[in-house]
């Protein structure tokens, strides 16, 4: 049975959304096309009508994951417009975010995998990271003549590293300690 153009476009979006989540949970190489398409409710044959390759899908899914993460930052700031950075710190450096394997930050979930991917996947991450940095830079002031871009980079690096380290350890108290230490350091950096 032939699929309409509208249905084909909807199927493509479904596959990108599902891949965005499954790649964050399992890594780019942690799931095959058959299981990925099954997760989208489609057959493996449908994949080749929609994407040139798994790398093509990885780039599209990475872009979608970064867009989703940026929207989460925006949602957090909308809930606390008086202190948007505090809103992001509170949700990002939390045990809840630590546990969000499928919906959490793609930089944390896939950063080391993305570094081994092609230029298209890296470009998707780079665009999302630049958005993170723009948001952070708009919320932080200069410190001792330091440009806001450098401060934003330090804050983002601290936050990503803390969530990553918190996910690597089994001990929930140690995981919480990483998140708390990062929260304290980020707040100190902003106050400086």
UniProtKB/TrEMBL annotation:
The Swiss-Prot or TrEMBL record annotates one GO molecular function as: DNA binding
Q: Which residues bind DNA?
A: 32-51
* Keywords from the named record: DNA-binding, Transcription, Transcription regulation
Q: Does the keyword Transcription apply?
A: yes
What is one Pfam family matched by this protein? TetR_N
Q: Does the keyword Transcription regulation apply?
A: yes
Gene3D superfamilies found in the cross-reference section: Homeodomain-like, Tetracycline Repressor, domain 2
What protein am I looking at?
TetR family transcriptional regulator
Tell me what organism the protein belongs to: Mesorhizobium kowhaii
Organism lineage reads as: Bacteria, Pseudomonadati, Pseudomonadota, Alphaproteobacteria, Hyphomicrobiales
